[in-house]
Amino acid sequence: KNIVILISGRGSNMQAIVEAELGDARVAAVIANRPDAAGLAWAAERGIATVALDHKAYADRLAFDRALMAAIDDFAPDLVVLAGFMRILTAEFTAHYRDRLLNIHPSLLPSFPGLDTHRRAIEAGCKLAGCTVHFVTAELDHGPIVAQAAVPVLDQDDPASLAARVLKEEHRIYPAAVRDVLAGRLRIDGLRVVASA
Ligand code: GRF
User: 130 CB under 6 A from ligand 1?
Assistant: First the structure.
């Protein structure tokens, strides 16, 4: 089975998935919307196909998304994984990959969709923060939840210290979620993801 991972930067979640034991699945390609994304070089060094598709070279969001779909589909993916991919996707894109597109978000959704989640969780006085793996739908940071992990928010936390604690959990739950989805262990039932019978 083929996995295509989309990144915009560092790519530490992508690295965690590449290094995970995924059975008969493999990361066929890593694609970035920023040619200088550090994760691209990391993947290329490991012999993984890489593609850089600069979103600034396209007239609008739909033109970029169509080029991105063509680049992704070259690798015949069974699963497309967003890992720190910082672009809002069109409904055409999310419909094309319906039920085979995952994202990780650094909050306990449905709390704190969008950016700057750790600062917002601290300012709201949350005692728990965390991360969420979910199927992607047209609505940003929504969609059926596959997995979550929670961590404590400590009195002395700043956004960076909380982000580091959450990121460790991201690296644990994202490869596991990818494995479970590819193995067909899960089924989408409305907004819920449940064990397949
Ligand atoms: C992660 O915290 C992810 O949840 C968020 O952006 C960060 C990406 O980190 N959307 P990396 O590129 O996977 O290291």
Answer: no
Query: Which residues, other chains included, contact 146 with Cβ-Cβ below 8 Å and sequence gap of 6+?
Result: 102, 133, 134, 135, 177, 180, 181, 186, 193
Residues annotated as catalytic are 105
54 three-class SS: coil
Residue from 54, 52, 74 nearest 64 by CA = 54
> What's the pLDDT tens digit per position in 113-142?
999 999 999 999 999 999 999 999 999 889
87 is in an annotated binding site: yes
Residue 8 to residue 31: CA distance in whole angstroms = 8
Q: What is the pLDDT of residues 47-82, one digit of tens each?
A: 999 999 999 999 999 999 999 999 999 999 999 999
Structure tokens at 103: 């994202």
| Ligand 1, atom 6, residue with closest C-alpha | 84
Whose CA is closest to atom 1 on ligand 1? 84
pTM here?
A: 0.97
Is residue 103 within 6 Å of ligand 1 at its C-beta?
no
Residue nearest ligand 1's atom 14 by CA:
12
What CATH class is the domain 2-195? alpha beta
**ipTM score:** 0.96
